[in-house]
Specification:
The protein contains 1 helix and 9 strands; from the N terminus they run βββαββββββ. β6 and β7 form a beta hairpin.
């Protein structure tokens, strides 16, 4: 069993699209009473559970678990060992919000070549962190000008209750797919 927590930066903003590798490893061990058997170990499948919306395609996920050099039991029947390594770019888990979990269950199969086949699960749990939203609208697109009303002929009236107004939209994105957002105005600067 391996556990990974998505990368986080302190203080925020938390970076996204990191190509840093999230990594964990372990070993599947086995014995065989048939001393002359030679074994082949393969990864036969993967099942994903938890928060899967946003997860990479099946073939990509399968490629994240690799097998190392097999130590076979031939001659002793003991101490069979197949090291495994899980490695995926952190950006593959950006879609997970803070505390959300993804569980990947890989099936590893040991075959003795004589009809004896057994399987063991390798379970990887990934826990998400909060990725900071990104404002996608250009600051220049959010700049508006208003001209005070005036009348001809002069004198220009004062005390008008007509509203001077401008409008626009602040757009943003967030790779944490289940986050709910609140947008507020936190201040104003006059010049």
């Amino acid at each position: 069993i391996g556990t990974i927590t998505e990368e986080t930066d302190t203080p925020p903003p938390n970076s996204t699209v990191s190509t840093d590798l999230d990594h964990t490893s372990g070993t599947v061990t086995f014995t065989d009473a048939d001393l002359s058997d030679t074994h082949q170990v393969t990864v036969t499948g993967v099942a994903a559970s938890g928060v899967v919306t946003g997860l990479a395609d099946h073939d990509t996920v399968m490629g994240w678990l690799t097998l190392g050099t097999l130590t076979d039991t031939m001659g002793t029947g003991l101490d069979g060992a197949q090291p495994w390594s899980f490695s995926a770019e952190d950006q593959n888990f950006d879609y997970l919000a803070a505390g959300e979990k993804l569980t990947l269950t890989y099936t590893v199969q040991v075959d003795d070549g004589n009809g004896g086949v057994v399987s063991q699960d390798v379970v990887i749990t990934v826990t998400g962190t909060n990725d900071t939203p990104v404002i996608t609208s250009d600051a220049l697109d959010e700049t508006r000008a208003i001209t005070e009303e005036f009348s001809t002929p002069q004198p220009n009236p004062t005390g008008s209750t007509d509203l001077d107004k401008a409008c626009g939209a602040v757009t943003f994105g967030d790779v944490d797919l289940s986050d709910h957002h609140q947008v507020t105005v936190t201040g104003v600067v006059a010049s």
